[in-house]
Amino acid sequence: MAIKYIGLSEINGPLVMLDKVSGISYDEIAKIKLADGTQRLARVVELSGDKAVLQVFEGTKGLSLTNTETQFRGRPMELALSTEMLGRVFSGSGRPIDGLGEIFPHKFADINGKPLNPVHRTYPRNYINTGISSIDALVTLIRGQKLPIFSGSGLSHNKLAVQIVRQARIAEENGQEFAVVFGAMGVQNDVAEYFRRSFEETGVLQRVVMFLNLSNDPIIERILTPRCALTAAEYLAFEHNMHILVILTDITSYAEALREFSSSKGEIPGRKGYPGYLYSDLASLYERAGIVEGKQGSVTQIPILTMPNDDITHPVPDLTGYITEGQIVLDRGLDQTGIYPPVSVLPSLSRLMKDGIGEGYTREDHSSVSNQLFASYAKVQDARALASVIGEEELSAGDKSYLKFGELFEKHFLTQSFDENRTIDETLDLGWSLLSTLPKSELDRIDEEHISRFYDEQKAKERFSL
Amino acid sequence: MNTIFSINGPVVKVRDTKDFQMLEMVYVGKRRLIGEVIGVTSECTTIQVYEGTSGLTVGEPVETTGSPMSATLAPGIISNIFDGIERPLRALGQKTGAFIEDGTEVDAVDTQKLYDVTMKIKVGDTLRAGQIYATCPETELIEHRCMLSPFIKEGVVTYVAENGKYKVNDVVAKLDCDGDEVSLTLCQKWPIRTPRPIAKRLSANKPLITGQRIIDTVVPVAKGGTAAIPGGFGTGKTMTQHQLAKWCDADIIVYIGCGERGNEMTQVLEEFSELIDPKTQRPLTDRTVLIANTSNMPVAAREASIYTGITLAEYYRDMGYHIAIMADSTSRWAEALREISGRLEEMPAEEGFPAYLPSRLSEFYERAGYVNTLGGSEGSVTIIGAVSPQGSDFSEPVTQNTKRFVRCFWALDKSLAYARHYPAINWTMSYSEYSDDLSQYYNENVAPDFMKLRQGISNILHEETNLMEIVKLMGSDVLPDDQKILIETARVVRVGFLQQNAYHKDDTYVPLNKQYLMMKAILSLFKKSKNALSKGVPMSSIIETGWFEKLIKVKYDIPNDKPSMFEDYEADMTADFEKLVSLAEKA
After folding, report:
1. Searching chain B, which residue's CA lies closest to the CA of residue A350?
2. Domain match, A336 and A426 both
3. What's the CA gap between B210 and B337, in Å, rounded?
4. Are A327 and A353 spatial neighbours (Cβ–Cβ below 8 Å)?
């Protein structure tokens, strides 16, 4: 027996209130039927006595206090799951929108997931070769990691994400499959189309599950989008042993949707008006990356976020950085000088790389090369700052060699074309050539043995025609 | 029967009842979720629920327990991993699989395991609060000492069990307390928000030796002291805490992963079981308790995790052990306070944090200390709390309030981290109020001139900071030679001494004696260089001796167990510089 509640008692933004209800559980899903026969989904967000507050996913436009019939489902929001999802396109709340009909579900799962017991995680160690020098050498991506791209409006984060998807060798030899789950939150139609076309051109479209919530779609649905995407990813990874790369874009739009929703509920705001629970909320998404002990598959996340006004201390990138295992930061200055990918090396970091590189994973000299490149490039910044004050001619020989190193590093190491796929050996050798342009005594992060094996001034001169 | 009236996130309200006590533990709903009463008025009782509330219905029952949120204190805690309300995650995993389900009840410790108990009392003895009545080996390293709970003042022993194997809940002794019979087991409970009583606070004048050079020499922390590690993301808070947990000379480590990453906790679990403690040759897990309430686990339990951790620490302190607590990160805990405060619709203070944030922080840090226990032994609890300032801005409320209540401030610096200078502790922003209290210890136990050398190193760094202002504007070429030598020496201090490689087998832990000898060598080089300069030796020849580079690599080149090599270095250095000086004098 399902009770239908006729009408509403209040409508406020995306929220509606119902009076005189009973037997409803917190977080439950309801179906709201309008007089014209269309249906909307809503979720219980607050219960108080016989009153219930519901958020309507598709927005409250056209609702009145009298023209609705609300029916509760008795269950939290669930997503229908099946391997048929591969190659399909869904709305942010998980309805198929590619005109190919409903999927035949193998099971239903609560989209909020459950926290993974730390005891049952496997610590991620296998690196993913992306073929991009700056990432492979300096911010190595590890399978099961969550590594966001911090970008700004107008930067080439989408292009970089596509290149990573295309070049990433994520699957092992033993026949494990690789798939991409793509969650778009509040992106423009063109961006979604760009991803779809790129996936098609690179031949991975049949291995992609897309969840699209475009910028003109309702904001409440936006809050569901990443949860649907991650539920699908967990299903494919942990029940079908696939290696899943989840791309979520744009987290900033997601956080803004959360803010809008929070303020319409009348909650007390934290920093910049974002709700006080933004950290916990973002964590409930990012923490769903990982590897479950005893399972073959993995979930790797690359969330993309545009920093408002390129400000890395804005709450969204700030809180993200505290949860994720590192970050890839893109820089407008580099982008303007025509460097692609414009990875700003110094603030970028991969926390898991230390355990996934070196002998047995990449190459034994990897960690010393990357440390030295970081340290040396940090000195380039000092030399440049000094040069801008006293002029380049006045610099000491040491500082001049750093200026040269910086220039070569940006031109040869960072810069890479969209279809250039470098192996890890190529990348590390390139790194050594760059370091060889500096005097040996400047290499204080590398032990003697590696210096004597790899340091080659002559080769560097030939390579960069100095 | 009391029933749920309203539900909003982790906050549940019950109306029209007078059955509840403040801070009492309750069971909420048919699934018996664990909750705590956080507000009582005549109309309405407010409860925060430590598990997910999804699926709860208005009208479900709320059960009282009559006792406050308490931790179970018994053998079996060490080397275990708990969530924020002391539910063991391994046992939880066996019950519900890889993902944590709500409403799962498990015992805090294994109640079936048999411990080899030795009784320390006999019939007729008078047992007072805090006195030990039984001991049993808990791990290879830690002997568990069962003490009379401070709730019971004293009693006369009327029954003592034979020494032998007992389970946690077996009765091993009975007391007559003014006519009431009290049965003692290996287990007791203590409310997590109440500090355990002590006999007397002692002054903190012994250092917590960590083997990390910048901490031990520049900004030391005392056993029983408090320290904060603030730093933006990626500056190495967690890494520093891991290093301290691995190497510091506390007997027991309580590591609280409060609202942090799941993978990090997995890493701690893996690493600590593989790492062997050099002093005892046992895995580090034998002396570690982990509390893991990761960022995606319920927020109310995150708030409780800090208190659970410190209660466990105080319990072991009362046995006479030295405990170090790593709380990573206290900002997540403060955010949990803010989140719950928001749900209660309390009036917010700064940045939405509740007005009682400073008092809660001080209550937490004040539970540290070096004490005489009720049982008559000495023990200590050292708190090292990581702080994650919003936007890496140290002026935000959590960092500022923490600063008021800790005596050691290890500020992590983004620009050092960007240059991969680890540990990225900024030597100008950091301070330790313990350095005076500890100077006697260092001078007596390491070397009489230890504090003098430390001052020498600080002076070099301080002068370098001043000179760098000029260098930034004019380049280093304009400086006179004696200042160039200072800058060069400061580089040796920064790269060779302050920077420390956690992944290098020798450098990851450096004994105090080697730290001392390294400082001595650097200052000796500085003195010799200045002397050579004054004798007319050109700057370039001093650099060409290679001693600056050599001292930078001393940390790798001289193994920790061969301090005598420093004498050879000193002799070689003296010879090289004498040669330089005599050459210059001839010319």
Report:
1. B234
2. no
3. 31
4. no
Cα–Cα distance for residue pair A198/A189, rounded to 1 Å: 14
**B-chain residues near A22 (CB < 8 A):** 58-59
Q: Which of A27, A120, A280 sits opposite B54 (nearest CB)?
A: A27
Distance from CA of B378 to the nearest CA of A (A): 34
Amino acid at B123: V
Cα angle B219, B222, B228; round to 5 = 60
- Write out chain B residues lying below 8 Å of A280, CB-based: 259, 295-296, 299, 335-336, 339
Q: Which two tokens stand for residue A262?
A: 């929070």
Query: In a mutagenesis test of the A interface, which of B94, B345, B418, B488 is the best target, namely the one with the most A β-carbons within 10 Å?
Result: B418
User: Does A361 fall in a domain?
Assistant: no
- CB within 8 Å: A267 and B477: no
Would you call B299 and A277 a contact, using CB atoms and an 8 Å cutoff? yes
Residue range(s) defining the domain that contains residue A34: 4-75
CB contact under 8 A, B475 and A390: yes
CATH number, position A59: 2.40.10.170
Write a three-state SS string for A101-170: CCCCCCEEEECCCCCECHHHECCCCCEEECCCHHHHHHCCEECCCECCEEECCCCCHHHHHHHHHHHCEC
The pTM of the full predicted model, rounded to 2 decimals, is: 0.91
CB contact under 8 A, B472 and A386: yes
All residues at 6 or more sequence positions from B245 whose CB lies less than 8 Å from its CB, including other chains: B253, B255, B268, B272, B284, B288, B324, B326
Please tell me the distance in Å from B125's CA to the nearest CA on chain A: 44
What is the predicted ipTM? 0.86
Is there a single domain that holds both residue A68 and residue A83? no
Distance CA B173, CA A401 (A): 77
- The domain boundary, picked from A333, A355, A377, lies at A355
Give the number of domains in chain A.
3
Q: Domain check: are A266 and A280 in the same one?
A: yes
Which of B50, B89, B242, B295 best probes binding to A when mutated, by most A CB atoms within 10 angstroms?
A: B295
Instruction: Answer whether A249's CB lies under 8 Å from A301's CB.
Output: no
Question: Domain boundary residue among A22, A56, A75?
Answer: A75
Q: Which of B266, B302, B330, B464 best probes binding to A when mutated, by most A CB atoms within 10 angstroms? A: B266
Rounded to the nearest angstrom, the gap between the alpha carbon of residue A390 and the centroid of all alpha carbons in its chain is: 42
If asked whether residues A38 and A68 sit together in one domain, one would say yes
Q: Is residue A231 part of a domain?
A: yes
Whether A360 is covered by a domain: the verdict is no
pLDDT in tens, chain B (587 residues): 899 999 988 889 999 888 898 889 999 999 999 999 988 988 899 999 988 888 899 999 999 998 899 999 999 999 999 999 999 999 999 998 889 888 888 899 999 999 999 999 999 999 999 999 999 999 988 999 999 999 999 999 999 999 999 999 999 999 999 889 999 999 999 999 999 999 999 999 999 999 999 999 999 999 999 999 999 888 888 889 999 998 999 999 999 999 889 998 998 888 888 888 777 788 889 999 999 999 988 888 899 999 999 999 999 999 999 999 999 889 999 999 988 888 888 888 888 899 999 999 999 999 999 999 999 999 999 999 999 998 788 999 999 999 999 999 999 998 898 888 899 999 999 999 999 999 999 999 999 999 999 999 999 999 999 998 888 888 777 888 889 999 999 999 999 999 999 888 889 999 999 999 999 999 999 999 999 999 989 988 998 898 998 999 899 999 999 999 999 999 999 999 999 999 988 87
Could you report the per-residue pLDDT of B549-572, keeping only the tens digit for each? 899 989 999 999 999 999 999 999
Structure tokens at B526: 């500085």
Same domain, A90 and A232: yes
For residue B97, the chain A residues in CB contact (below 8 A) are 120
Residues A285 and A371 in one domain: no
Residues A150 and A215 in one domain: yes
Is A315 part of a structural domain of the chain? yes
CB contact under 8 A, B93 and A374: no
Of the partner residues B98, B269, B292, the one whose CB lies closest to the CB of residue A292: B98
Residues contacting B194, CB < 8 A, separation 6+? B68
Chain B residues lying within 8 Å of A441, measured CB to CB: 549
Looking at the structure, tell me whether residues A304 and A390 fall in a common domain.
Answer: no
Distance from CA of B60 to the nearest CA of A (A): 9
